[in-house]
Amino acid sequence: MALEAETKAIVAKFDYTDDDVNKAVDEFLRQMAEGLGKDGTSLSQIPTYVTGVPNGTEKGLYMAVDLGGTNFRVCSIQLNGDSTFNLTYTKVAIPKKLMVAKTAEELFAFLAKQIELFLKTNHEEQFVAHIRRRMTVSSPDGFRDENVFRLGFTFSFPVQQIGINKGNLIRWTKGFDIPDAIGKDVCALLQIEIDKLHLPVKVAALVNDTVGTLMARSYTAPGKTGAVLGAIFGTGTNGAYVEKLANLKKPLLGEYDKSTGDMVINTEWGSFDNQLSVLPNTPWDMALDKTSVNPGIQMYEKRVSGMFLGEILRLVLLDLVKNPAVSFFRDDNSNSNDWKSTTTIAQNSGIYTPWGLDTAIMSVAASDNTPELSVLRQELESTLNIYSPAYDDAQAFKAIAGAVAHRAARLAAVAIAAIVLQTGKLTDPALADEPIDVGVDGSLVEHYPYFRDMIYETLRIIKGVGEEGAKRIRIGIAKDGSGVGAALIALVAANMEKNTTPADYLAELRSQAINHHLTTVPEDGETVATD
Ligand code: ADP
Ligand code: MG
Q1: Which of the four, 177, 366, 373, 419, has the lowest number of CB atoms within 10 Å?
Q2: CB 423: neighbour CB atoms within 10 A?
Q3: Ligand 1 in contact with 363 (CB < 6 A)?
Q4: By the 8 A CB rule, do 76 and 520 touch?
Q5: DSSP string covering 122-175, please?
Q6: What pTM value is reported for the model?
Q7: CB atoms within 10 A of CB 374
Q8: Per residue in 150-187, pLDDT tens?
Q9: Residues with CB under 5 A from ligand 2 (ion)
């Protein structure tokens, strides 16, 4: 009984009321406007120099890599020009020690090596042709530069972008910490390592995963209109949206196409409300922040994304385990355990290790509706080394994990609603019944059961959105959106290279991209079409 009462009290601490949600939306809108006006604000609102979204007719073969936070993905994408694509893909986990390497070189050399492996496995022909040419031609500079793969580099950390394939790292997030890389151009860091391996690859575009997701959703979504928002709920969380140029008050450094009247903005919303004026703050949120590599920042992300939800839960559970007044994962004797055993938490259980509880188990808890919670109990054994957990332990675990995730989904709705409201599309009579497309990506939104339903449930109670508005918002998974999106931006970049004046790149890519592509490595050094 004590456990049940204590669980209830804990769950209540993760309540985020309708009123809280509505206050947070107002504050989000305020911080968005602030970030559009000047630098150094909570929401960075970084201009991406991407001034429009694709419509599904784009074509060509491109490469993309994605450094997300947990995994490194390498892929090649054939855009078919009819809203469809074919994607070849590999993924490796980023070794923990490289996340905190001494030098940037260590990390980027590893990334280049993965690109080499991918090319050898999946594009052997081009790869071999390229190597052969290198060996037979005396001056490597004599190569036609167009004859290499254009690669879109999805780099999901805050970057000051100064060109389509140039951007300096502002700070690491999500547990990375390689001070040597701060302030450096991450595209150059990758290109240097690619060149050391003599790979036929040019880093053509630097892409934030949110922008990639926005582009990918626009390419694949049914209908004529593009998406308004691309959002990530994976290791971290962030969003990019289409803003009116007129609302962008701070000065822009680079050249860009003004004809569309729009600019894609990378909000860096992980840092929303670092000052905690509207975000919830339990003792466990505070404890997590204190032990993180970046105390005081990314405060929204620390309450919403995959990297942190498991750790919040772990801290709560640890308090419960240590609480002498309740029996949690502890039995007086085998009779108090419904499986007539006694629970043991192994000394090496992840529950005792900072960051030792992967958010993935929260999905298992949420989806286990078996009468004895036997799936979750087995998972507690296999991933957390908690042996013979009793039914009431599993029940408490499920309730608390559910509360942490529910709060995260409600907070996710705050960001989505604020951006939809900011675009004005809900009140534009010209768009009356049109859907408002939002692309999402990341393991949390993809795998946590009913995460999107919880977002919708929250959208419905938000002022200015309501039942009707929520119905029009179409949240769709853009799976591997970062790959396809990066390819689309690499395509834009390739076209910009050919044209000194990238006037209206969309018209440009629609008319030119369709027939000709410059991504293979022919023997004769001429460009060839790949489709
Ligand atoms: P990245 O952020 O590197 O692009 P992902 O989108 O796959 O990668 O997100 C990884 C994060 O998602 C990790 O923090 C992990 O704990 C969490 N995660 C992985 N699988 C699940 C799952 N089934 N349910 C909830 N969260 C998950
Ligand atoms: Mg990702």
Answers
A1: 177
A2: 17
A3: yes
A4: no
A5: H-HHHHHHHHHHHHH-S-GGGS-GGGSEEEEEEE-S-EEEEETTEEEE----TT
A6: 0.86
A7: 13
A8: 999 999 898 988 878 889 999 999 889 999 999 999 99
A9: 68, 209, 234
